[in-house]
């Protein structure tokens, strides 16, 4: 596709359940980022992947959050034992090696934990 | 710890220039200034970035002060579609720490 895609677009889950959020970056982009945005707030950095390097996980809020990137392309963000405070929009972005400063964002996944 | 300070909101008349300020007094020598915007219900969109020289592209102009402690994003002829939250970010790597931004409302 032409842009970053994310799925699902919306997810409603019950407290304590695990969820998986998927991101398909722009083809050829080596860098992939996950952010989350709570209602009315700015973006919060979660994790960053660059090529085959070890990911920068410094923004993950707890050990319930994890992410992987298979084959240097698709990424999955997993939240285990979801809590109500995990409710937010989870945004994925990618950038190319040549133009690292320009991140292209996906539409996001709206997660609601009941 | 916020690296940038922006006013929470601003209004601008349609067709006039919108000047959005950003303070980044603790910026270090190898950090760039980036501007993104986020239109309601969409993901952020890259606008422009610079190190120390003023920059211009088809969307906006970026004016960085000589001491690099502040900058201004200029939308030369604001339209209603420019209504959005504008984020000023300082970074030297890919760790983009977005703050609360400035909510710009362009009014007819």
Q: How is this structure best described in words?
A:
The complex is a heterodimer of chains A (114) and B (108). Chain A has 114 residues and is mainly β. Chain A has no helices and 10 strands. Chain A has strands at residues 5-7, 10-13, 19-24, 31-37, 43-50, 65-69, 75-79, 88-95, 104-105, 109-113. In chain A, strands 2, 4, 5, 8, 9 and 10 form a 6-stranded mixed beta sheet that branches. The radius of gyration of chain A is 13 Å and the shape is globular. With 108 residues, chain B is an all-beta fold. Chain B has no helices and 9 strands. Chain B has strands at residues 9-13, 18-23, 32-38, 45-50, 55-56, 61-64, 70-75, 84-91, 102-107. A 5-stranded mixed beta sheet of chain B has the order 1-9-8-3-4, with no helix packed on it. In chain B, strand 5 (55-56) and strand 6 form a beta hairpin. The chains are: A mainly beta (114), B mainly beta (108). At the A-B interface, strand 4, strand 5, strand 8 and strand 9 of A face strand 3 and strand 4 of B.
């Amino acid at each position: 596709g032409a842009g970053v895609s994310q799925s699902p677009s919306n997810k409603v889950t019950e407290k304590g359940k695990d969820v998986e959020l998927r991101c398909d970056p722009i083809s050829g982009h080596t860098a992939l980022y996950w952010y989350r945005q709570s209602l009315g707030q700015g973006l919060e950095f979660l994790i960053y992947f660059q090529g085959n390097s070890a990911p920068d996980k410094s923004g993950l809020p707890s050990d319930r959050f994890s992410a992987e990137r298979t084959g240097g392309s698709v990424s999955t963000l997993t939240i285990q034992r979801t809590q109500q405070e995990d409710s937010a929009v989870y945004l994925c972005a990618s950038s190319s090696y040549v133009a690292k400063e320009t991140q292209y964002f996906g539409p996001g996944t709206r997660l609601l934990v009941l | 710890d916020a690296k940038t300070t922006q006013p929470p909101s601003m209004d601008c008349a349609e067709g006039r220039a919108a000047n959005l300020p950003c303070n980044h007094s603790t910026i270090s020598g190898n950090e760039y200034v980036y501007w993104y915007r986020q239109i309601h219900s969409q993901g952020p969109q890259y606008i422009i970035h610079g190190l120390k020289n003023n920059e211009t592209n088809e969307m906006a102009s970026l004016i960085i002060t000589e001491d690099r402690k502040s900058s201004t994003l200029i939308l030369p002829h604001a339209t209603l579609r420019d209504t959005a939250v504008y984020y000023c970010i300082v970074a030297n790597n890919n760790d983009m720490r977005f703050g609360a931004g400035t909510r710009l409302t362009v009014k007819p």
